[in-house]
Amino acid sequence: MPGFVGATPRRTSWAVWLAAIVCAVLAIAVIITGIAVFAIYIIYQPKTPYIKVAYAQLSKLVYGHSGLLEIEMVLHLVAENDNKKAHASFSDVSCLLRFHRIDVAELRADTFDVAKNSSLELDYLFQSSSIPLDQAAMETMDVALKQGVVSFDLSGHARTRWRVGVFLSVKFWTYLSCELRFFWSNGSAVNLDCSSKSH
Ligand SMILES: *[C@@H]1O[C@H](CO)[C@@H](O)[C@H](O)[C@H]1NC(C)=O
Ligand SMILES: *[C@@H]1O[C@H](CO)[C@@H](O)[C@H](O)[C@H]1NC(C)=O
């Protein structure tokens, strides 16, 4: 009986069919998700918002042989949102200014929004108290003043959040880490290039 011979394989083939259908449904779901993500990407072209330093000026530097350093620095940060169709919000913005691994001044900003395809300028004044430098930092400062260029390290971060489409909200940390160098004579920045944009 040919039917009898086929009976056992037929039971197996039901399981195979079921598995095939499940796989096909999953595959279609994956493809649809992929197309949706791709379409959102093409339509919205999401770009990570970032912060950069647009202007920096060392407006005051007092340093005596007692090893105490006091500075004042004007910093214009720009929060950039290159997304053409999405607002971005920046939160937990904080920057730390250091001289030779010694904390000099810290800055925190409130949460703010940047409209789509736009940027926001934030003007800050870093003011330090009298910071005692250690031996290594004092030597570095002596050399810097002799050469006429003083450098500080600026590190910072911000949490950015923006909406892609109606349902997808993207969150990213963006990090800033750069060396700010200033002419001691007039306090203007040397070759300022400081941005948290990932290249
Ligand atoms: C985005 O801004 C640039 C200049 O700031 C402008 O040329 C461009 O048309 C704007 N695009 C949109 C979609 O608003
Ligand atoms: C500051 O001084 C340096 C050299 O001492 C000079 O090259 C630079 O142009 C000056 N900047 C301004 C704004 O005067």
Automatic annotation (TrEMBL):
<keyword id="KW-0812">Transmembrane</keyword>
<feature type="transmembrane region" description="Helical">
    <location>
        <begin position="14"/>
        <end position="44"/>
    </location>
</feature>
<dbReference type="GO" id="GO:0098542">
    <property type="term" value="P:defense response to other organism"/>
</dbReference>
<dbReference type="GO" id="GO:0005886">
    <property type="term" value="C:plasma membrane"/>
</dbReference>
<keyword id="KW-1133">Transmembrane helix</keyword>
<dbReference type="InterPro" id="IPR044839">
    <property type="entry name" value="NDR1-like"/>
</dbReference>
<keyword id="KW-0472">Membrane</keyword>
<protein>
    <recommendedName>
        <fullName>Late embryogenesis abundant protein LEA-2 subgroup domain-containing protein</fullName>
    </recommendedName>
</protein>
